[in-house]
Amino acid sequence: MILHHENHSLKDLHTFGLDVKARYYLVYHNEEELKELLNGTLIRQHSLLLMGGGSNLLFLKDYDGVVLHSAIDGIQVAEEDNEQVLLKVGAGVEWDALVAWSVEKGYGGIENLSYIPGDVGAAPVQNIGAYGVEFQDVFVRAEGYFVDSALPFSLNKKECAFGYRDSIFKKELKGKVVVTQVWIRLSKQPRFLLDYGPVRSAVEDLGSINLHNIRKVIVAIRCSKLPDPKEAGNAGSFFKNPVVPLAFFQQLQAIHPDVPHYELAGGMEIKIPAGWLIEQAGWKGRQVGRAAVHQKQALVLVNLGGATGKEIYALAESIQRDVQQKYGILLEPEVNVLA
Ligand code: EPU
Question: Which of 22, 50, 89, 247 allows an S-S link to 63, with CB 3.0 to 4.6 Å?
């Protein structure tokens, strides 16, 4: 049955823990319920926000429209052979429950994406990534419905136009479709990716390289750096890591020889950790009102308790201005800011 709430508090439904309300909060459990909602008047007459686990949103005020949440459940094995397995996963499944399930079954490919908050439906939108793996590496197709017509769509990997924390769902299709099912391919003979930071040595310290140990290490690394939203509201990385042309990077490196960096596009572009820029600019651990820059990872902004979205955004803007002045780089928010 569709759940329908009015003037509904979103405080416990998104990870920044802000005290905001949605004019309408609707939850559907299957495709039929979704189609009924898309064909109804509420969604047609109001602005629409799709919200999964709410782990990448910053509300600057109450949401004067419809917040739509998928509770479509289910992890199904659609096809399998000796090497691979094709899974069809409901958009409402919690992402980390899928990772835990896959590791338990011995299916590899998403273990490095352990402990990322949020639901499966948001994974292709954001092309979630961590420790050398991106969601697009396992993605096969996304299915769902157009908001305007309530007609179904199916998009393959190429059509999703994935990029770094980017996809067609954040661009041309933003607000136009609802993802209901995600298909991914995992491997029964996984190739482990351990070359990000301390991952390999930490896994080796546990005795053997296997899915369980990789998951254990990734969870431990994330817990050591990223605040638990239940203790301090946050949305993970607040900004994207900026990508700059090689010539620009070389100028920066001449002044700051220790700047960490990763080569992209065959070395013509360089990704710089925003956390490093923010820390060097002196913001790590700084508190402004009830908003703060996390002490262990400068890329994360936290709600110390009772902050407003505007307070957090004001802090983000101060950081943006300062980093731009000091380094000539404009940091772009990674979270979806709802003004
Ligand atoms: N660094 C600092 N100071 C800081 C934080 C980072 O100097 O306060 C420098 C360090 O040199 C460190 C480097 O930045 O070696 C990279 O830091 P880290 O490994 O923590 O990763 P990140 O680049 O800050 C990205 C993702 C994270 C993801 C990690 C691990 C983005 C925007 N963020 O962070 O994703 O978990 O890599 O792969 O790409 C998220 O998207 O919400 C998220 C948490």
Answer: 22
